[in-house]
Amino acid sequence: MSKLSNRIELLNVGQSFWMKDQEIHLFSDVNLAIEQGQSYAITGPSGTGKSSLLMLLSGMETPTRGQGYLRHNNKTLPLTELREELGFIFQQFHLLPELTALHNVALPLKLRGIKNALTRAERCLKKVGLEHRLNHKPQELSGGEQQRVAIARALVFDPKFIFADEPTGNLDRKSAQDVSDLLFSCCEENHAGLVLVTHSHELASRAQHVFSMADGEFKHQQAKNMEVAAC
Amino acid sequence: MLNKSRNILSLAWLFYQQEKNYKHQRYMYWIQATLMTFIVTLSLSSNNIQQFLKYNLDNLLGADVVISQSQRLNDTQLNKLKQLSSKWIVTQQVSTTLTHKEQWQQIKLKAVNADYPLQGNLRISDSLNGVEKEVASGPEQGEIWLDSRALSSLSIKIGETLLVANRPLRVTNVLLHEPDRLMEGHSVEMRALLHQDDFSQFGFAIDLIRYRYLVEADKQQTNQLIQWQKQALPAAQFHHKQGAHPLASFWKRTENLIGLVSIVLFFMAAIAIEQLTQVQMKKEQFFSAVCLSLGASNKSTLIISIVKWSISLLFITPIVLIVSAAFHWLVISWLATTFMALSWDWQIWVALKSVGATSLFFVIFRLPIWLSLRNASLAYLISNIKPSKNQWLSKLCAILVLFIVAFSYSDNALLTGMILTAITASVVLILAVSWISLTLAERGSQGFSGIAPFALYMMKQRLITKSTQILGVGLCAFLLLFTIMLLRDLGSTMADYQRQHDGNLMISQASEDQMRHVSHWASTQDIDIRQSKPYLFAKLTAVNDQSLDKYNDSPSESLATFKRAIRLHWTQAIPSNNEVVDGQWWDSDPDNWQQISVEQEVMTDLGLDIGDKMRFQIHQHVIDFSIVASHQYKSGAGSITFWVQMPATATKHINAPHYHMASLELKQEHWPQLSQLWQAHPTLRMISLKELTERFDKTLAMVTQVISIFSGLIIVLATIVILASISALESNEKKKNSIILSFGLTKSTCLKLNAIEWLVTGGIAAFGAIFGTYITGLMMYQSQFSLPYNPDILWLLSTLLVILLFVAGVGIGASKASLKSSVRQLLAEN
Of B316, B326, B353, nearest to B39 (Cα)? Predict the structure, then answer.
């Protein structure tokens, strides 16, 4: 897959689920395109289906209505083709507690059978400013540091898109600021598309595109050019 | 206060209802119920047998006191007996072989007078399916009564004549019941009753006859008789209605052995419970922290936890009682083939006592959870600081339970030691191999990428939890492998008997005259006598100047055997099928002839040491021997071996009848000639290998059934151990799999990782299992099962492979739940 021409498209997508014989509609008729290299934020109250939308965009789940595609060099592919080109960042960090920071970051490389996994992981951790924490386990790191490790882990295998779920939700203001700087700058540098789900308007406002979800409606709120510092 | 208690109770009930369907709780119930059922069934069955024996003693002694010995009482002794009791009778027994046409059968011949029976009923019938009737006295002169099996075996009918030592006796009745049957214990020997006047004309060697004095006595007279027997007849067997059944200690030993073996079941349960405890502890600590944040005290949360556990136990108990009652019924039905008239008797108190004792074990297993709740704090919720999981405490509790079980059932230090050593060695080895192999594999694969190195790396990081899992699987495999190997080897040993160089006819007792006759007959017929070893009968009466009863009262096979006269062998050199394991064998011509060598297992069973003194009554002599050596059986040079051996020079000083044990190899044409041999020597005890193997086969069938049931229990517990260990790690596994999926990898990667982990787990466990099986075989085969130990490594490996495929299959199958993870589970909201 070439580096520049990947785009995720959702066409008239709707999502609902059944609970105790009752169908719960999260959203419907959502049309959305995500370009590689651009940043997107999805905001809205809890329970409106932001995470579900993230799952649809990543091709991990299929919509109950409508369709999702990956456009690559004018070819239309199923979203499952994206599988190996995705990285995730979570609110709870979800680092493996048994592994050091270095090994957590090296994990996706090792599983892919990539050589020099540890060297690449070390380089990546240096980029996020954790060269002094290589051999520390998650429980020995602060929340901000853990999220930096998670960012390094998500980016270490050069994915085309990063999906981040409330990446600063568990952090104090200062750490949140540092992490969001890092996240945007690294995605920009890696030319990865970034899709954020957040309640934070401050974080959302840093994205080039902001969408909001409320009462089953999906709105495009803002589009802008972005300036970021190098990571 | 009352309201508070009621609220706590209702909360406990509510949480019990919520938790009872959790997977880890279900496994916990299964383990508890399985162990409880085992212990309750064992106690009920044992109690049933002991009760039966007690009843048996009261009703089947045929007298208030029975004195039994191999000599007739002399005049002085008879006068004393007359002084002590006004009513007594004497019977005589001999084991002989009766022949009829070309059939022969070993039979216990009992001779009685008109005064028999003293107490109880003598019952006969006049045909095989005839009506049972009670008679006041035994057979008339010239008559013999045979039991139904003897009639069938000899193919003889009522009214026909039987030749005993060439004297004709008419078979007139079927013998159904003699009131002094207890003395035959649970023997299945066939029986015959005849008049003493006939018996005296057969000319049986006097030392082969067993005299039994049946005495009527009240309690005071019984006590006087006990005192008199101890002083005047120390070598006699003495039974009375106030005493214990001669088989009671044997069955106590059986119960203890099964109970001791149950230590391995507890060990496996301990591993499973230990892992499930970790899951439960986390949940209880979280619940406790939430309660604390709502103003509750540590005490309240602790009470809720205890009540919740008690409710679960209350629900399990009735199920356990019903299931164990059913198993108890099956066991008794099975044993009823050995103990005629044994019937199912369900004792609620015995069952409840066992439930109580087992519950106490579970309380000890539960202690770490309750202790952790005492120290629970809000910090768990605020800063996510997890309280200590008391991992070491829970391991200590498990070890404590195992020691209590071992202590409760141990009556044989050697066997207990062997079982504990085998388990400990396997545990240590499995732990060491886990640590070394995972560390080396992790270091060696550090420079490599890929699924396998990652799997090894992760296993090393989770070394403690993985080791427990490996330990569980390894011990299960070890136990299964050992039981299957034992079963197979016992079976093949039986088959090998047909081909061994020991010959196909075994003489267990031949007097000097008889042996001369047999040797002459053998040489004329060109029959090969493979082995011939002399012995004399000796009755142990005291050890280190203490009477046998006082010296050792813990039940054991050795003690049960020493209550009868044993075979004392003499030899100058160490027999070629023996080896000295302790002490020093005597010189070729020792001045001191009063020295003996005792078999190692007997030494341990009776707690003997080199230098101890053993006093034997041999014929009319009382002789003290000093133990100078301890020997054990060595396979490959014949099977005739003796527990106690003395220097050959000792025979110059002991005037007692000599006997021989021997083995011969007969050809097909020689077998019909045995009838003549027996006609000439009815007391010659010979047994063909075919009969011997038939007896072995019956024993083997019983052993097979017991081992199969035990293997079944192991498989049930093994499956629970695997499921429990998966359940304990399930949340971690799910998270790991979700994270791997979030890297864009597929579920097949997770499955491969899982398969690699199970194969490595299985591989290390297999190594431990083979080692454990090997050393257990090395230690126990010879001493406990009298089998030579020649492990077939190829067979071991292939059986192990089957077990491991099963284990890996169960493991991978049961891990499916953790493969159902998805990235969504890591996201913050729906």
Answer: B353
- Please tell me the predicted confidence (pLDDT) of residue A97: 82
Is residue A62 within 8 angstroms of chain B, CB to CB? no
A51 Cβ under 8 Å from any chain B Cβ: yes
Of B296-305, B529-538, B683-692, which range is least confident?
Answer: B683-692
The answer to whether residue A87 neighbours chain B at the CB level (below 8 Å) is yes
- How many other C-beta atoms lie within 10 A of the C-beta of residue B239? 21
pLDDT of residue B638: 73
Residue B255: pLDDT over 80: no
What pLDDT is attached to residue A2?
Answer: 43
Separation of first and last alpha carbons in chain B: 43
CB of A160 less than 8 A from some CB of B: no
At B109, give phi and psi (nearest 5°). -95, 125
The CA distance from B560 to B563, in Å, is 5
| Kind plus residue range of the DSSP H or E element containing B194 | strand B190-195
Per residue in A195-225, pLDDT tens?
Answer: 999 888 888 999 999 998 887 777 877 666 5
Considering CB atoms only, which of B457, B736, B823 is closest to A88? Answer: B823
Q: Residue A88 and residue B822: Cβ atoms within 8 Å?
A: no
Q: Which of A49, A58, A91 minimises the CB distance to B828? A: A91
Instruction: Answer whether B742 sits within 8 Å of A87, measured CB to CB.
Output: yes
Q: How many CB pairs below 8 Å do chains A and B form together? A: 98
Looking up tokens 């990063």 gives: A162
Q: B220 touching A, CB under 8 A? A: no
B669, amino acid identity: E
B743 at A interface, C-beta within 8 A: yes
Residue identified by tokens 């021409």 is A5
The Cα angle at residue B482 between residues B476 and B487, in degrees rounded to 5:
130
**Quick check: B732 pLDDT over 70?**
yes
% of chain B beyond a pLDDT of 90: 10
Q: For Cα atoms A174, A177, A181, give the angle at the middle one, nearest 5 degrees.
A: 145
d(C-alpha A64, C-alpha B690), whole Å: 77
**Interface touch B824/A99, C-beta < 8 Å:** no
Segment B336-345 shows an average pLDDT of 72
Q: Catalogue the long-range contacts made by A66-69 (C-beta closer than 8 Å, 24 or more residues apart).
A: A66/A10, A66/A11, A66/A12, A66/A13, A66/A14, A66/A29, A66/A30, A67/A10, A67/A11, A67/A12, A67/A13, A68/A8, A68/A9, A68/A10, A68/A11, A68/A13, A69/A8, A69/A9, A69/A11
Chain A residues closer than 8 Å to B451 by CB: 111, 113
Q: Decide: helix, strand or coil at residue A177.
A: helix
Of B400, B439, B493, B406, which is closest to residue B704 (Cα–Cα)? B493
Task: Tell me the per-residue pLDDT of B626-658, one tens digit each, with 9 for 90 and over.
Answer: 999 999 877 667 778 888 999 988 888 888 889
Report phi then psi at A201, rounded to 5.
Answer: -65, -35
Poorest-confidence range of A42-46, B318-322, B779-783, B825-829? B825-829
